[in-house]
From TrEMBL:
Pfam families: Thioredoxin. Keywords: Disulfide bond, Electron transport, Redox-active center, Transport. The keyword Transport applies. PANTHER family: THIOREDOXIN (PTHR10438), THIOREDOXIN-LIKE PROTEIN CXXS1 (PTHR10438:SF242). Coiled coil: none annotated. Residues 1-121 form the Thioredoxin domain. The keyword RNA-binding does not apply. CDD domains: TRX_family. It comes from Protea cynaroides. PROSITE patterns: THIOREDOXIN_2. This is Thioredoxin domain-containing protein.
């Protein structure tokens, strides 16, 4: 890579925003077919703890590039929030093969990191 290359580019979010039921279905089915685990952040623009979690999830997404990180605004994509039985924000769901394997309610960065690290470890153990 040449020196200075890419400095003009804006940093692209590694957390993918889900904007409809259709995009949710597409992202989750693609992750399933590729064998990638999924971390879903259910958020709301008015929920300050949810907003505060965004940079933490971005950082985790850049570290764990084999996981698909999704963000779902519960007010914009009510069908998905309802289907996944989300009652409070922020809620993080960890999905493997389309099934929920863990759920964490509340903004607790250390616990989120710990759970995602454990999730990654167990996902890799299943592959090997």
């Amino acid at each position: 890579m040449e020196a200075g290359q890419g400095q003009e580019e804006t940093v692209k979010s590694r957390v993918v925003k889900v904007d409809s039921q259709e995009s949710w279905d597409l992202f989750v089915s693609q992750a399933n077919s590729q064998g990638n685990p999924v971390v879903v952040h259910f958020t709301a623009a008015w929920c300050m703890p949810s907003v505060a979690m965004k940079p933490i999830l971005e950082q985790l997404a850049s570290v764990h590039q084999d996981i698909l990180f999704l963000s779902v605004d519960v007010d914009e994509v009510k069908e998905v929030a309802s289907k996944m039985e989300i009652k409070a924000m922020p809620t993080l769901l960890l999905l493997r093969k389309g099934s929920q394997v863990d759920k964490l309610v509340g903004a607790n960065p250390e616990e989120i990191k710990k759970r995602i690290d454990g999730f990654v470890f167990s996902s890799r153990a299943l592959i090997n």
